[in-house]
């Protein structure tokens, strides 16, 4: 198996974290033109330096945004993110929902009740029932996970004897 070059590993790492600058060729700042510490492919580093250049060096926002390959709205978003959360605010959040947003407690309770009355019912059947009764299309695997989470919570609530 061939070993990957350090630059390949860095690109993969940046990409996996959502930090790969989509257009590193647009970064025209001289610091990023040299080999070394400043990497135009690292969007977190580029955004930090862009905001720093405007705040500390007093360069106009439009000029900073153009020099670092971003739009003015992107500059302002980076500035707010940096003020709110520091450098961590410049790291993109994972996309997608953060929780089981379709299966509310009410729906899961209904599923559990239905399953206790009909033990042979499948997750696919329950998912179909959710769509018919609540108007929400859910995947059978989501139903399984929601019921498993609820079962774990119930087990944790009961003290061991």
Compact summary:
The chain is an all-alpha fold and about 160 residues long. Helices cover about 55% and strands about 0% of the residues.
Characterization of this structure:
- The protein is mainly alpha-helical and 161 residues long.
- It has two domains: 11-90, no CATH class; 105-148.
- 56% of the residues lie in helices and 0% in strands.
- The protein is built from seven helices and no strands.
- Helix 2 runs antiparallel to helix 3 (61-67), helix 2 (43-57) crosses helix 4 (72-85) and helix 6 (123-134) packs across helix 7 (140-157).
- The longest helix has 18 residues, at 140-157.
- The mean pLDDT is 87.
**Structural class, judged by helices and strands?**
mainly alpha
What percent of residues are in strands? under 5%
**Low-confidence segments:** none
Average the pLDDT over all residues and give the rounded result: 87
Number of domains: 2
Shape: elongated
Distance, first to last CA:
53 Å
User: What Rg do the Cα atoms give?
Assistant: 25 Å
Q: What about the largest sheet?
A: none
Residue share in helix: 55-70%
